[in-house]
Amino acid sequence: MITVALPKGRTMQAALERFARAGVVPDEDFSSTRKLIVPASSAQARFLLLKDPDVPLYVERGAADVGVCGLDHVLESGADLLAPLDLGFGTCRLCLAAGRGTGVANGWRSGESGAELGRSLRVATKYPRLTARAFARRGVPVDIVPLSGSVELAAVADLADAIVDLVETGRTLEQNGLVVLEELLQVSARLVVNRASYRLKLEELLPVLERLGGPA
Ligand code: PRP
What is the pTM for the complete model shown? Predict the structure, then answer.
C-alpha cells in the first residue's frame, strides 16, 4: 500500500491528473467528499488530503510514503526528504516585493535596504525560514512578520515595509500597488519521497515513480 500526501491548494488538480496517468486514481472525487483519506483501490494506494505546507512533515515522518509539494514548502520545512522529480507544474516565483515608489523599493534598487537608519526592515511572509536565510545572505537586518495569508496586505496596511511571497501571474502585486524587488527562488511542484519508504517499498514505488516522471 502506497500512501500519497496530496496538497489541497492550486496544484491539487494537476497532481491528480499526473497520478491518474500513473494509474493511481482516487475512488471518490475530492470535490464532492469531505473525506480526508480516499483509497485508490486499483493501484493499492490511498490519498491523504493536506494543506500544502503540511505535506513535507507527513512524508518526512512516514505518515505518507510520497507527496506532492512546491519547492517553497520543501525548503521552508527543512524536512529531510528525497525529491527525485520536478513535476513541472505549479511554477511561480518567491519574491521580495514592496510598494511602488516607496523608500524601500527605491533603496533596494540602489543597493540599500531602504529601512530607516538603525532599524531592521520589517518583512511580512509565510516563509520565515527562507526569508531569514535570504536576508542573512545579503547581510541586511530583518524583522520578520510571520503571517499565514493575504501577505500583500501587510505592505499596503503598513504592518511591514516589504513582503516575501509567491508571485504567479503578478496580478495580486499589481492590483495592490506592489512591485518585485528581487526574485529569491524559482518554484515548481516536486514529488517528495520518504527515505525509509524508498528503501523498503522500492518495488511498489518504482513503477509509479517512473510513470509520474514520464512525458506530460
Ligand atoms: C498566493 C500568493 C499570492 C498570490 C500570487 O496566494 O501567496 O498572494 O497567490 O498569485 P498571482 O501572482 O497570480 O496574483 P493564495 O491565493 O494561495 O492565497 P493566500 O494569500 O491566502 O495564501
Answer: 0.93
